[in-house]
Amino acid sequence: MNTAHKILYWTPRILAILAILFLIMFSFDAFEGDDSFGRKLLGFLVHNIPAFILVVALAVAWNHEIIGGVIFIAASIAMAILFRSFAGNAGSLMIISPFFLAGLLFILQKVIPGRRK
């Protein structure tokens, strides 16, 4: 595998990992407040359901790039609808766009000729 293909191979994987970690970072606010630790932990887990789904998508995309890329693109569109990003909410688009880009890069990495396994 030449250098360009190594970069194209690793870029969507690293981008997806960093974007998932960034998404998880927002759920740490569940540990604030006066609730018991169990309720805080439950809130933390509930806040991370989208991140858990994206981790599964990353696991699929790692070896099945086209399927995983489609899942990432579909997930980013679903998040855009849920976050009402199409109504001009630029902040949520900045959170969602790395997943869309990772999906495109996963697909692109698989369809570009010259890649050896």
Would you mind describing this structure in some detail?
The chain is mainly alpha-helical and 117 residues long. It has one domain (3-111). The chain has helices at residues 3-25, 37-47, 49-63, 65-82, 90-111. It is elongated, with a radius of gyration of 16 Å. The protein starts with a helix and ends in a 6-residue tail after the last helix.
* Uncertain parts: none
Helix- and strand-based class? mainly alpha
Radius of gyration: 16 Å
Q: Tell me the distance between the termini.
A: 8 Å
Strand composition percent: under 5%
H/E element string? HHHHH
Shape, per Cα inertia axes = elongated
- Total number of beta strands: 0
Q: Provide a count of the helices.
A: 5
Integer count of domains: 1
Helix content range of the residues, please? over 70%
Largest sheet: none
Mean pLDDT: 89
Short structural summary:
The protein contains 5 helices and no strands. With about 120 residues, it is mostly helical. The chain has one domain.
